[in-house]
DNA sequence: CTCCCGATAT
DNA sequence: ATATCAGGAG
């Protein structure tokens, strides 16, 4: 894969999915973005958006969530799955933000990675989505699957895929390509039964070529 | 590597 | 019934 092909793929997806950023998590500040992104692990954003209003009505600030009763949090976020671990993650994250970052979500990768429940994927999402900072590329299960199918990377390792894609796209596209690939992955290119017949990057995709050849 | 874990599509 | 979903911790 060369950067010209990568740019062509970006352009096609960008034309196909306008205003993609409005299709995801509903948050009002970096704190809410961080909490909802932690909750979105292995969970659709629609489910996360469902619990967000009651969660933030009850715990509107890092201070209130840091002092929250674990069981009360578990009940509110129950539908997002992994609720026991996630309740500990978001209350722990709130505590870290209050105790170590003055009540403000930090805006650097190294600081975000010290927060409970935050890995590279979550950190990249928060940096880009809440702060508009393109420090890396968030590689979730959709991005990983599409990067391998399309041919952005030959690796199955998310960190390696991120490095390969960073080399392939200009920094100004790092945030957008993530959302475009996630939306394309959901609507056209899921793990099972990808709809290659209606895919706008069909002619540029390694996966289609290998399928056609057998 | 396993575990966490409910909701949804197939 | 089974796979998968905007992953991360132990």
From TrEMBL:
UniProt KW keywords: 4Fe-4S, DNA damage, DNA repair, DNA-binding, Endonuclease, Glycosidase, Hydrolase, Iron, Iron-sulfur, Lyase, Metal-binding, Nuclease
Cofactor detail note: Binds 1 [4Fe-4S] cluster.
Signal peptide: none
Entry-linked InterPro entries: DNA_glycosylase (IPR011257), Endonuclease-III-like_CS2 (IPR004036), Endonuclease3_FeS-loop_motif (IPR003651), HhH-GPD_domain (IPR003265), HhH_base_excis_C (IPR023170), HhH_motif (IPR000445), Nth (IPR005759)
Residue span, HhH-GPD domain: 39-187
Record-listed E.C. numbers: 4.2.99.18
Positions with a binding annotation for [4Fe-4S] cluster: 189, 196, 199, 205
Cofactor(s) this protein cannot do without: [4Fe-4S] cluster
Enzyme class: lyase
GO process annotations (BP): DNA repair
UniProt cross-references to Pfam families, sorted A to Z: EndIII_4Fe-2S, HHH, HhH-GPD
Catalyzed reactions per annotation: Hydrolyzes mismatched double-stranded DNA and polynucleotides, releasing free thymine; 2'-deoxyribonucleotide-(2'-deoxyribose 5'-phosphate)-2'-deoxyribonucleotide-DNA = a 3'-end 2'-deoxyribonucleotide-(2,3-dehydro-2,3-deoxyribose 5'-phosphate)-DNA + a 5'-end 5'-phospho-2'-deoxyribonucleoside-DNA + H(+)
Entries under NCBIfam families matching the protein: nth
Family under the similarity heading: Belongs to the Nth/MutY family.
Protein name: Endonuclease III
Organism name: Methanocalculus taiwanensis
Gene: nth
């Amino acid at each position: 894969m060369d950067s010209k092909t990568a740019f062509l793929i970006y352009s096609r997806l960008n034309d196909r999915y306008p205003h993609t950023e409005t299709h995801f998590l509903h948050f009002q500040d970096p704190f809410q973005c961080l909490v909802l992104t932690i909750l979105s692990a292995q969970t659709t954003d629609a489910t996360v958006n469902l619990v967000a209003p009651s969660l933030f009505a009850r715990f509107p600030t890092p201070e209130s969530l840091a002092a929250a009763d674990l069981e009360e949090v578990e009940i509110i976020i129950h539908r997002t799955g992994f609720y026991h671990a996630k309740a500990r993650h978001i209350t722990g994250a709130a505590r870290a933000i209050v105790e170590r970052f003055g009540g403000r979500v930090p805006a650097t990768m190294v600081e975000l990675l010290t927060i409970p429940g935050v890995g590279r994927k979550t950190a990249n999402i928060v940096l880009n989505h809440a702060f508009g900072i393109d420090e890396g590329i968030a590689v979730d299960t959709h991005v990983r699957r599409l990067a391998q199918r399309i041919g952005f990377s030959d690796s199955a390792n998310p960190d390696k895929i991120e490095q390969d894609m960073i080399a392939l796209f200009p920094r100004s596209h790092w945030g957008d390509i993530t959302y475009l690939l996630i939306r394309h992955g959901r609507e056209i290119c899921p793990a099972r039964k990808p709809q290659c017949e209606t895919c706008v990057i069909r002619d540029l995709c390694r996966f289609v070529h290998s399928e056609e050849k057998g």
